[in-house]
Amino acid sequence: MKKTILLLSVIILIIFCSNTKKEEFSKEALSNKLVTANGSETNLKKILKKHKGKTVVIEIWASWCSDCVKNMSNVKELQTAYPNTDFVFLSCDKTTEAWAKGIEKHELVGEHYLIPEGMKGAFAKSINLDWIPRYIIIDKTGKIALYKAIETDHEKVNTLLKSLN
């Protein structure tokens, strides 16, 4: 009986901690290397600084991801509905060629960056990336308004963007 109660306590604690609202990125997430479309290095801190004062939707995706591809129409719908929101795409593609082809094929409008080590690298670990597509929404003050949303959370994302714009 004691083991059961202990196990239930641990499970509740894990659930509680995983649902805690995250308002800022870790130092690691802000400083890990990302690659620009022209091949130079940058990081999330520089990207967010570029969009200071704006609502930002960060989509983490890959051209090989069927859920990402299926959800592209939802992303385009959001871009049309919220033209004053900036969209930043972080790709987990394995090569720059696949990444560039994916951007072109799906006609993705926004800023594009490559996560050089994909879903298993330092950047992915620093943001607890366990599924793509993944959305992170930053409000105009630079705080994280939504830390983790996936393609099935479209209405949640839409409602939040409506309130932020």
Explain this structure:
With 165 residues, the protein is of the alpha/beta class. It has one domain: Glutaredoxin. The protein contains 8 helices and 7 strands; from the N terminus they run H-H-E-E-H-E-H-H-E-H-E-H-E-E-H. A 7-stranded mixed sheet has the order 2-1-5-4-3-6-7. A hairpin with a 5-residue loop joins strand 6 and strand 7. It starts with a helix and ends with a helix. The relative contact order is 0.18. About 5% of the residues have low confidence. This is Thiol-disulfide isomerase or thioredoxin.
CATH architecture: 3-Layer(aba) Sandwich
From the spread of the alpha carbons, the general shape counts as: globular
Return the CATH class.
Alpha Beta
CATH superfamily: Glutaredoxin
By helix and strand content, what is the structural category?
Answer: alpha/beta
Order of helices and strands: HHEEHEHHEHEHEEH
Report low-confidence residues grouped into runs of 5 or more: 12-20
What is the total domain count? 1
Mean pLDDT: 87
Number of helices: 8
- Strand-residue proportion: 15-25%
What is the fold's blueprint, element by element?
Blueprint: H1 2-18, H2 27-31, E1 33-36, E2 41-43, H3 44-50, E3 56-61, H4 66-70, H5 72-81, E4 86-91, H6 96-105, E5 111-114, H7 122-126, E6 134-138, E7 144-150, H8 154-164
Parallel strand pairs: 3-4, 4-5
Antiparallel strand pairs: 1-2, 1-5, 3-6, 6-7
Protein name: Thiol-disulfide isomerase or thioredoxin
InterPro entries: Redoxin, Thioredoxin-like_sf, Thioredoxin_domain, Thioredoxin_ResA/DsbE_sf
Pfam families: Redoxin (PF08534)
